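Exam revision sheet. Question 4 asks you to relate a sequence to its structure. Input first:
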Amino acid sequence: MKKSVPANLRHWIVWAVEAGFVFILIGIIRLMPPAIASAVGGALVGLIGPLTPWHRRSLFNIGYAMPETSMAERQRIARAAWVNLGRVGGEFCHVRRIIASDRITIEGLEHLNANSRGGFMIGAHLGNWEIFSAPANRLDLKLSAVYRPTNNPIVTRLLYGRSSLYHRIYEKGPQGARAIASTITKGEYFAMLVDQKLREGMMLDFFGHKASTAIAHIKFALRSGVPIFMVQVIRTGGCRFHLRITPFDLPEGHGRGKDDDETVALIGTRINAIIERWIRENPEQWLWPHRRWPASKGEREES
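Answer key, structure tokens:
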């Protein structure tokens, strides 16, 4: 009688095959110059993305967020966003080279230079979020971050087990939450991209609709008194970027333990408004396929 392969072993076989393809792909991309890898990634995903089910979600999200846009405009934005996402993928293996090159200009470094308490660097999935650590690398600051593991542990190790541009990286979850506290206590910086749905977040306005929003950084900032810096990443063309750093104005007297829900909601809504403005400035550079709102996957929107 033929014995079946144990389910656990089947998983590892599938994971190993997937990881093999990823390893080969990474090797091919590394052979290309950054600009070529970016262009190839953009071209491939720009062709494939519109053929996937996620394209329909992108069109829905664009219309949901910006109902004033025509269907033709939504198609244009969605297709351009796929190209941007492909470029991000092509640039992934070259992030260190890109950050060390003249492909990035940074505005507002003086705000970080003038600060000695550490704090939060807050951004969004815009332009290429993988170069978010560039300001910290330029100034030799200790910046930590969290990452979301893939469903394949071998691929996760391939992607995140490499030498990081961050001081430390932590897996999303309880470990990441503890890391925020320890990082801020040491007077270091913590990076967070807060434009995506967070299961345990607070429902706040984003493009005029309620969206589950991360608030951990707000609570820590209010309790500890450390500053928040907004970091906008803009793709200026091809494989070139401009980063803009601006201090976020927290309420006067913050750091005295006042982190009630009303204050947190007010600050979170203001941060969402800043990110919304960034997206409106360059809508083709945002991650539109994400299920940002309950309505993005047919759920009832909460009031």
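Marking note for examiners. The first strand starts at residue 104 and ends at 107.
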